[in-house]
Amino acid sequence: DFLCISLANGFIQLRYNLGDKTVILQTFQKVHANGNTWHLLKAGRVGNEGYLDLDGINITQKARPGMNVLDTHTDFFVGGVSSLNLVNSMAVENEPTSFTGCIREIVINNRELKLTVTDPKGGANVGDCDGTVCGYTVCKNNGTCQVENSGFSCSCPREWIGSTCEQSIHCSQNRCGSQALCIPQPTSFSYICVCALGWSGKYCDSKIKFFIAKFVGNSYIKYTDPYYGKRDLQYSRISLNFTTNQTEGLIVWMGKAEDEDNDFLAIGLANGTLKVVINLGERISVPLIHSKYSTCCDERWHFITVVQNQTCIKVYLDEELILFEDIDPHRKYTALNYGGICYFGGFEIGRKVNIVTAGLFQKEFIGKIKDVVLFQDSKKIQLMKAEGYNVYNGNYGN
How many Cα atoms occupy the beta-carbon half-sphere of 209 within 13 Å? Predict the structure, then answer.
């Protein structure tokens, strides 16, 4: 399988092969080699339907029956490859050659690639397109870069300071603890401290311990399963207790949540009822929704268990089997390759639940979670030892 974007006789081409046939899309207009004009290119595929957009002019290839998933196990290359032997003969029109020009702002599945010296795995013969120490986006938050004899300087907008305009003036004198995030509040000319897991207080300077995690919105826990490499991913299981008075919220997301090709098992609330969504591959998400308006949102503790036996899914609520479905009788994909990552309550600060889950869930979870058990483990996972922010001690009271 491959997906390749290239220049061919002045036209932009998108070529991809999902394992059955090669699809080719080409722009109507040429890219003129004057070296002074930046072009905006958007390209990709949804299932086996491709799209190519150059400066707002779109070409779409209608989907035909065939494969739907891009199964690649190679590195991601920009501008060229380490060896031309890696290029499939159908991926380009002519003999493969490296790109000459400038590339910036590469966004893959809503995540921008950092084209710096340290972030890529490797590279060669790449320079700064700007030709100066200012480069591109050296100055953050709409700061203006000026070349100086000693390097560069940034002229910052009114509410930002720092050598690269990276710090809000509202956080310049913040009292947040070393394990906290300072979030500026421009409308009130102030800031708030968002506490790391295990800390609380206005300035996140009080150490806490808990076995019940309280989520207040804009909260998350990211747990890395130390036994992932030993798991039988065709037979996964997760159970936990939760309580809430909300009708919407993501309770747990088993999966890396990095791009649309990641497998996942998700549990949450939608319109006041329990919703479980499974994706074992091919980006086909199968939602299982409890048909009755359950008592999930009554502020009482509820015990949920989701069991995946290859493509057969069972969901238990308070020990009662409420959902049982075979999501793929053909058994094409049978393993939950979740990467050993479990999110509880939401995702990292700044990542919206409705965007990361592609609308499957609308909001972060507000409520409490306890007694999480993965697979058939004899011990509950220790949420306190995970990564997270804005999670509080739910052991007492409300």
Answer: 1
CA pair distance 171, 67, nearest whole angstrom? 50
CATH 2.60.120.200 maps onto the chain at: 2-112, 213-393
Alpha helices in the chain (DSSP H): 353-356
d(CA 262, CA 70): 12
Q: State the burial class of residue 179 (Cβ atoms within 10 Å of its Cβ: 0-12, 13-18, 19+).
A: middle
Which pTM does this prediction carry? 0.69
3-state secondary structure of 230: helix
- Read off the pLDDT of residues 58-87 as tens digits, 9 standing for 90 and up: 888 877 777 677 766 667 788 777 777 777
Secondary structure letter of residue 196 according to DSSP: B
Counting Cα atoms < 13 Å in the Cβ hemisphere of 3 gives 20
Whole-number Cα distances in Å, 299 to 55, 244, 247, 368: 51, 5, 11, 9
Closest CA relative to residue 285, chosen from 215, 360, 338: 360
Pick 125 or 292 by higher pLDDT. 125
Q: Distance between CA atoms of 194 and 391, rounded to whole angstroms?
A: 9
- Topology, domain 2-112: Jelly Rolls (2.60.120)
